[in-house]
Amino acid sequence: MTAPERTPHAPDAVGATAAAVRAALGVGLAVSAYGVSFGALAVASGLDIWQTCVLSLLMFSGGSQFALIGVLATGGVAAGPAAIASATLLGIRNGLYSMRMSPIIGGPWWRRVLAGHWTIDETTAVGTAQPTLRGQRVGFWVTGAVIYLGWNLTTLAGALLGDLVGDVRMYGLDAAAAAAFLGLLWPRLTSKQPVAVAVAAVVVAAVLVPWLPPGLPVLAAAVVAIVVGVTNVLGRRTT
Amino acid sequence: MTVWHIVLIASIAVLGLKLVGYAVPPSVLERPTPARVANLLTVALLAALTATQTLERSGEIVLDARVPAIVLAAALFALRVPFILVVLAAAACAALVRLLGWMS
């Protein structure tokens, strides 16, 4: 994918940049809000407040963070390797986003390193959705800044809150985590192939839960994606 | 392996994957198979995590208050209700079902 570049008409360019900022703020604030549930769940799954905050500061990828604490919540430290593998496999898509954003970001290497840290679902979505190159850059950086600040502050708030309330199951936070995973999945169910993979993954994971140690059923479900992806069953012909 | 090891190794791995994307030439994206596998991998992992987070407790499949909560969440996502409201509604649903003592 290449950055569509238009000849910058002055008023048009200003409008596009303003639209990028608006999109960035809207998406950024909405996403930041659910850092509270991550913070509370992380503490409930056995992490301390520092470890919870380091995840949001350094890993900074919601899906991988929820995956890590989800596996640790059921398997404890013994499930560490499976937790690391789940988080890492979910992080592969960020590498794809980086490839997409790379020509848009440009500039010196240190700018790409900072951009790399902030390359996630939301920054890529807002960035690539803008019509001008300037709008794409503004959209990416403003979304990144808002989410990085907001996600880390709400993670801390959630961790402190989780420490305070204790059993989060009473407040339905375990169901909130399930809904969060479903929410990340939902926009990807756009055609027959991903829907079939999702259904098969649910079946594989659920069937294997009583037989495998915590975390491994999720990794086993990843095999479904590899098989379908390589053979392109139910896929559109790409020529 | 301690919790700190797990947190740091996983964080560095996820961060590293993001940075690798800026180092490889964008032409890799034009090959369909790796891109398709990576996209489907995300779908499979999120679906499996949704299932285990909804059904698993201590290594067993359990039907409890999380099940009506996830059904409600799916209905709300289908109606395009914003993410954060759906997550809150799912939590409230599970909490309410437990409060009423319908499902453990």
From TrEMBL, chain A:
Domain of life: Bacteria
Keyword Hydrolase in annotation: no
UniProt key word 4Fe-4S: no
InterPro entries xref list: Brnchd-chn_aa_trnsp_permease
Keywords from the UniProt entry: Cell membrane, Membrane, Transmembrane, Transmembrane helix, Transport
Subcellular location: Cell membrane
Pfam families attached to this UniProt entry: AzlC
Transmembrane segments: 66-92, 138-162, 168-187, 194-212, 218-235
Topology term for the membrane: Multi-pass membrane protein
Family: Belongs to the AzlC family.
Name of the protein described by the UniProt record: Branched-chain amino acid ABC transporter permease
UniProt organism field: Homoserinibacter gongjuensis
TrEMBL record, chain B:
Keyword Transmembrane annotated: yes
Transmembrane segments: 6-25, 67-100
Keywords: Membrane, Transmembrane, Transmembrane helix
Keyword Transmembrane: yes
UniProt superkingdom: Bacteria
Record's protein name: Branched-chain amino acid transporter AzlD
